[in-house]
Design brief:
The protein contains 13 helices and no strands. The protein is mainly alpha-helical.
């Protein structure tokens, strides 16, 4: 465990402590206080960045978990050969992210993308006029890389579904909707909530894909943090540290909320 602990201390704990200290040292005054956090929460650009990041992360996580649930159900009920090929496809697509994913969407749905040109010729206004380099474009890209990850995380939970549950439900004259919404989904709820938390954190901290698509032309928390450490004019570690701490606090809050509901759901299921 010693090498692992050394890596954790050197590359996680110490940088986090340094980040926290730099966020408390005011850029103008040089004194320790909440000057940087006040600046973050009172500047319209940073406020919009936080709201956009939370909105895109939450919506992409919710849509991704719904589609992933259906995909995991299909994979669970499919024959073994189909399941193996589908899992292989999920492994490939879950690792297809970052700049290559952004470039792929540019080729398909950019201003001169293949699908955009085809839609213009076919007279499909929604696709022909779709702006990939906007919040809606980011949402679609985020949903794309959320679905394979969520499906892979839900597959082990589906393996815990017992065939006897459906037989018992049929004996008690329960319909298909009753079986799924009153038996299966409540039992899968801890895994669903845990996956939702992972998806939210995954989207909130995503940087490479967003930067390749919109650079600094769209207000996102991860992009604002990076701009403070690699700015063209000057580096602003104080504000960047405060923004990074806000990002960390959002992740911690999402994790704590998820753990609360997961524990509550599991406790209620055990009581039943």
């Amino acid at each position: 465990m010693l090498p692992f602990l050394a890596v954790v201390v050197c590359y996680e704990i110490l940088p986090l402590i340094q980040l926290f200290i730099s966020s408390l040292i005011g850029k103008e005054s040089g004194a320790i206080g909440l000057e940087n956090f006040i600046k973050v929460f009172t500047t319209p650009l940073y406020q919009m960045s936080i709201l956009n990041s939370v909105r895109i992360s939450l919506l992409s996580a919710l849509i991704g978990i719904v589609v992933a649930f259906l995909a995991a159900r299909f994979c669970h009920e499919a024959p073994a050969n189909v399941r193996n090929r589908f899992t292989m496809l999920l492994n490939m697509t879950s690792n297809f992210s970052g700049v290559p994913l952004a470039f792929a969407f540019m080729v398909l749905m950019g201003h001169t993308g293949v699908l955009t040109i085809l839609a213009q010729k076919a007279g499909i206004p929604f696709l022909a006029n779709f702006d990939l380099y906007s919040g809606a474009g980011l949402m679609i890209v985020y949903i794309y890389f959320q679905i394979p990850l969520a499906t892979l995380l839900l597959l082990p939970a589906f393996r815990g579904i017992q065939p006897q549950w459906k037989e018992a439900a049929s004996i008690l004259h329960a319909g298909s909707l009753d079986y799924w919404f009153r038996i299966v989904i409540p039992n899968l709820m801890p895994s669903i909530l845990g996956t939702l938390s992972v998806l939210f954190a995954n989207a909130l901290a995503a940087y490479a894909t967003a930067y390749a698509l919109v650079m600094n032309n769209y207000a996102l928390l991860a992009l604002q943090i990076t701009s403070k450490y690699k700015g063209d004019v000057q580096i602003d570690k104080a504000t960047g540290g405060a923004l990074a701490m806000v990002l960390i606090l959002l992740m911690v809050a999402a994790t704590l909320i998820n753990n609360y509901f997961t524990t509550r759901t599991a406790r209620g299921r055990n009581l039943v």
